[in-house]
Amino acid sequence: MRTLTYLAAAALAAGVALLALMPSESSPAAATGAGPQDAQKAILAAFDRYDVVAGASPNDIFLDLIRNPAFPGKADVIAVECGNSLYQPLLDRYIAGKDVPLAEVRQVWRNTTQPSCGFSVFYERLFPLVREVNKSLPPAEKLRVLACDPPIDWSKVTSPEGLAPFEERDRTIAALMRTEVLAKDRKALMLFGISHLLRGGGSAVAMYEQQYPGVTYTIATHFGFQKDNEKLEKRLARWPVPSVVPFAGTWLGQLDASYFESRPGQPPAAKGYPGADAYLYTGPRALILRQQIAASAVLDTKYITELRRRAAAVEDPPGGLMHPETFFQRELESGALEFGS
Q: What pLDDT sits at residue 10?
């Protein structure tokens, strides 16, 4: 009996010790005020302290943010991954409300180095949305969309060697952020894949912050934890959706980095999400919706024929992302949910 008592006491002590290692929302970390906040309010507030707020796209939260009447007073530029910088003059005219047909401006996101951009519903919506928002804004508050993909002219690409000069994408992004945003004392919302936004390594943010250190607030998006997801997501269950929480001063920032994305050269003892400042929560992993492809692109036979030509020109192997059929097959086999049926 005495042995059982000792075992029970030991188990209780171990449990208490474990709880002490996992800070709760009422812990000193939470007492600093660093907790989940309404996503739009948190992002808008970040512009008061940073010149650039960077978020992983595509995510409809950013379309809602652009519709927010407070956004134009906080940012001047929306810098995007899915935009061919070759067409920046055309894009500027379109966003300014000039008479530019949608069919013509689609070249901006359909003719990038990334085939997935051409099928993106998110970007199919974003550009017309910004154009419409600008119609009601005074000249000083009108938004500019900055296309940051390398200026490739696909009509001149007839071999793999023709694509090679445009594959240093982060260098192009960093150069445009320096010249078109930071050097002009403007503020920007960056919408890119997270690998371009994390500090460290060869990311675009790391490159331009060599000259402009500390100007960026990078927000990573929750797509589930790499381990113990079910257990940890229970701690997010009462968070508002969508919400943003900083890593500094919160239990998320005290988690081992292996719970998030692992990166080459990451220190073994790294904590939180290395290279990111905050976490965007849009709901549990099981409820995350998949971004479907744009019907307007699928039904454009001329565009699909051109994509097939490009795939052949750069000698993309069967099943590669340059082939439109790869996207068609994925769409056929996928459901509405990103991680479910």
A: 41
Domain boundaries of the chain, sorted by first residue: 26-333
The angle at the Cα of 243, spanning 336 to 65, to the nearest 5 degrees, equals 80
3-class secondary structure per residue, 12-35 = HHHHHHHHHHCCCCCCHHHHCCCC
pLDDT of residue 341: 64
188-192 and 52-56 as β-strands: parallel, antiparallel, unpaired?
A: parallel
Q: What's the CATH number of domain 26-333, 1.10.3470, 3.40.50, 3.90.1580, 1.10.10?
A: 3.40.50
Instruction: Specify the pLDDT at position 31.
Output: 31
Q: Is 97 left (phi over 0), alpha (psi -120 to 50) or beta?
A: left
Residue 24 pLDDT: 42
Neighbouring C-beta atoms of residue 134, cutoff 10 Å: 18
pLDDT of amino acid 269: 81
**Helix or strand holding residue 218 (H, E):** strand 216-221
pLDDT under 50 in the chain at which residues? 1-33
Residue 30: what pLDDT? Answer: 36
Full-prediction pTM beyond 0.70? Answer: yes
**Distance between CA 224 and CA 226 in Å, rounded?**
7
Q: Starting at the edge strand that comes first in sequence, how are the strands of the sheet with 278-281 ordered?
A: 37-38, 243-246, 278-281, 216-221, 52-56, 188-192, 77-84, 144-149
53 residue type, one letter: V
177 within 8 A of 216, measured Cβ to Cβ: no
3-state secondary structure at position 271: strand
